Amino acid sequence: MSAQGERPAWTGAPSPSGLSEAEARKRLAARGPAPPPQTSRSYQSIVRANVFTVFNLILLVFGTLTLVFADWRDALFLGVLVANSAIGITQEVRAKRALDRLAALVQPTATVVRDGNARKAQVDELVVGDLVRLAPGDQVVADGVLVDAAALTLDESILTGESQAVERRSGAEVRSGSFAVEGAGAYGVTAVGEDSYAVRIAGEARRFRHPRSPLERALNRLLLTLVLVMVPLGVLLGTALWERRTPFDEAVPTSVAAVVSLVPEGLILLAGLTYAVAALRMARRGALVQQLNAVESLASVDVLCLDKTGTLTENALRVVDLVERDGAVAADLGVFAASFPVKNDTLAAVAAAYPAEAEEPEHVVPFSSRWRWSGLRIHGRDLVLGAPELFELGPLEERTAAEAAGGRRVVAFGTSPEPLDGLDPAAGPPPRFEAAAIVVISERLRPEARATVEYFRSEGVALKVISGDRPETVAAIARDAGIPVTEPLDGTRLPSDSRALARALRETSVVGRISPEDKRRVVEALAADGHYVAMVGDGVNDVPALKASRLAIAQGAGTQMAKSVADLVLVRGDFAAVPAMVREGRQILRNLQRVARLFVTKSAFAAFLILSAGLTPAAYPLLPRHLTIAAALTIGIPAFFLALAPSRGAFRGPQFLRDVSAFALPAGTAAGLGVLSSYWFALYVLDLPVDEARTVATTALIAIGLYFVLVLEASGRRRGAAVSTLVLALAAGYALVLAWPWSREFFALVWPSAAMLATAAGGSAMVLTGLWLADPRFAPGRAHVAAE
Question: How far is CA 746 from the centre of its chain?
Answer without folding.
Answer: 45
